[in-house]
Amino acid sequence: MISTRGYAGVNIDFEGGLPEDRDLYSDFLRFLRDRIRPRGLVLTVAVPAKTGEDIPWWRGYDFGAIGSVVDYMFLMAYDWHHLASEPGPVAPINGVRQTIEFSLEHVARNKILLGIPFHSYDWTLPYRPGSPVRAISSQQAVRLAIRHQVPIEYSEEYKSPFFYYTDEQGQRHVVWFEDVRSLMEKGLLIRQYQLGGLGTWQLALSIAQATSMLRSNVIKVT
């Protein structure tokens, strides 16, 4: 299928890996590389935003072994806060920096693609475990702020935008998302650490300004 459709390569995104499968996963990637590389195809893999080995499901990914096998490693540097968490930035700059630095201890910098999120989260307030949380696009986040005529604030600590609004039922909400400002901050990290580039999840969810900036400043590698 890869050959008939003219794809440039394969991206593997297996999430929730178990520690006991750590070596098996690395072996699988090695097997796949040996099958596709003779055809001139690229192998990339998406990995979690590890900052250490302290969280069990992080241990299922051997960054050193993976980095020695693949052409590019897509670092999913997002979801510090998510559908099952309390409100907060999706990709705080301090967390992104930590996972870059951890990755560089194990993987060549030119192989690392920094993953940037264009999904957002809308939490109901006051937050309690199990409270409704909604995943929305960056486009939807901006439209929400405009519709409810509320100011978009910006956290200098996390380099992430957010805003509060009250819905038609009188329920208070907070939304954290990504915009051009937060994207630029992550672009500076890519340059500072001389990484291989960036990737997004997913481009269709971004705001127009961010898409335009990416198309103007990013060189497509595959």
TrEMBL record:
<dbReference type="InterPro" id="IPR017853">
    <property type="entry name" value="GH"/>
</dbReference>
<dbReference type="GO" id="GO:0070492">
    <property type="term" value="F:oligosaccharide binding"/>
</dbReference>
<dbReference type="InterPro" id="IPR029070">
    <property type="entry name" value="Chitinase_insertion_sf"/>
</dbReference>
<dbReference type="GO" id="GO:0008061">
    <property type="term" value="F:chitin binding"/>
</dbReference>
<protein>
    <recommendedName>
        <fullName>GH18 domain-containing protein</fullName>
    </recommendedName>
</protein>
<dbReference type="InterPro" id="IPR001223">
    <property type="entry name" value="Glyco_hydro18_cat"/>
</dbReference>
<dbReference type="Pfam" id="PF00704">
    <property type="entry name" value="Glyco_hydro_18"/>
</dbReference>
<feature type="domain" description="GH18">
    <location>
        <begin position="1"/>
        <end position="222"/>
    </location>
</feature>
<dbReference type="InterPro" id="IPR011583">
    <property type="entry name" value="Chitinase_II/V-like_cat"/>
</dbReference>
<dbReference type="GO" id="GO:0005975">
    <property type="term" value="P:carbohydrate metabolic process"/>
</dbReference>
<dbReference type="GO" id="GO:0012505">
    <property type="term" value="C:endomembrane system"/>
</dbReference>
